[in-house]
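User: I'm putting together a teaching handout on how multi-component assemblies are represented. Below are the sequence lines for each component of a complex, exactly as they appear in our records. Could you produce the 3D structure of the whole assembly as structure tokens, so the students can see both representations side by side? Please keep the chain order the same as the input.
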Amino acid sequence: DAGVIQSPRHEVTEMGQEVTLRCKPISGHDYLFWYRQTMMRGLELLIYFNNNVPIDDSGMPEDRFSAKMPNASFSTLKIQPSEPRDSAVYFCASSGAVGFYTDTQYFGPGTRLTVL
Amino acid sequence: DQQVKQNSPSLSVQEGRISILNCDYTNSMFDYFLWYKKYPAEGPTFLISISSIKDKNEDGRFTVFLNKSAKHLSLHIVPSQPGDSAVYFCAALPPGQGGKLIFGQGTELSVKP
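Assistant: Of course. Below is the structure of the complete assembly, with chains in the same order as your input.
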């Protein structure tokens, strides 16, 4: 398996523009997670899905952020409009399940977003 | 409000010596903890975990210790190797919340030859 795939790897945009980050989870995994990494706060969970359904979006910072998972093999994280403070590395991760808990989470390589 | 804290942003250790990375948590209900390792330009990868029913878990050169009364865990790497140089994240899995991991800020370990 190729692992979790994210695109683009780098994104530079101007304030006010829409940004869409993409993720393909590992085949067969039924959990998908979106994280944001910053120096100040480390890795923060933004939202996670189970079987394509959003379970917890309490980490989504503002209404400017939205995430979708139209099918088991694809998810998007959209920021509209983007702001300089959104600059960070965004990771997607996926996992299977072990009972009520998820199994080990496998992370993609991340998308480094810079908003000018 | 950081529920999982790694108070040392960086640590430098000589090759062959022990590296000790620390992590504190605030919620005594947390019952499962993990360490992830991250190299530059890569995503974090799982390293080792520990359940709250244990106070130690060992995997090769890596050992995690859990002190529930102090709400503290540590990762020991013995002996440290230059390839261990990376950012290490501590994470906690709150009970009853499925897969919602709470991560610390990370500690950057540098192992010098």
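A couple of points students might notice: The two ends of chain B are 37 Å apart (CA to CA). Chain B touches chain A at residues 2, 6, 32, 36, 41-46, 89, 91, 93, 96-106 (CB under 8 Å).
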